[in-house]
Amino acid sequence: NKGFIVLSYLEKELVSGTLILFGNLSAYYALGAYDKVKMSQNMAISHWPLLSSILKTKQLGKKHFDLGFIATNTDDQKELGIFKFKKGFTDNIYTTYQVAFKLDNRS
Q1: Which residues contact 96 (CB under 8 A, 6 or more apart)?
Q2: Positive or negative CA dihedral for 18, 78, 71, 43?
Q3: Cβ–Cβ contacts within 10 Å for residue 75, how many?
Q4: Alpha carbon separation from 92 to 11, 65, 87 (Å, rounded)
Q5: Sign of the torsion angle spanned by Cα atoms 64, 67, 68, 73
Q6: Is 69 helix (H, G, I), strand (E, B) or coil?
Q7: Which of 8, 73, 81, 100 has the most CB within a 10 Å radius?
């Protein structure tokens, strides 16, 4: 068991998918894909799949649920919307550092 996918339907139409991956003690919100038309109509099609994922993760005995990176230092409205969405699930925001390096030095 390395994770699961939550698929959501509205009137028999697939409108969202949420991918959750597992570590030893944690679950990670890896990916959410949502119907852009429905999202532009302010339909809350992303909320239930994520809440369902959090509840399922707790049921499986995981200790943490990581919502992933959030951009707080930006003017990008999409990124700020994602921040607001994720913050709606918790007030526990932890600062982490990411270390990355190039694997290809051609550019």
Answers
A1: none
A2: negative
A3: 7
A4: 35, 11, 8
A5: negative
A6: coil
A7: 8
Pairing type for strands 64-66 and 3-10 reads unpaired
3-state secondary structure of 58: helix
33-78: pLDDT as tens digits: 999 899 889 888 888 888 899 999 999 999 988 887 777 778 888 7
For tokens 């994602």, what's the residue? 82
pTM for the model:
0.73
DSSP E strands, the chain: 3-10, 13-22, 26-34, 64-66
| Both tokens assigned to 88 | 């709606």
Residue 91 pLDDT: 74
Residue type, 104: D
The one-character DSSP state at 5 is E
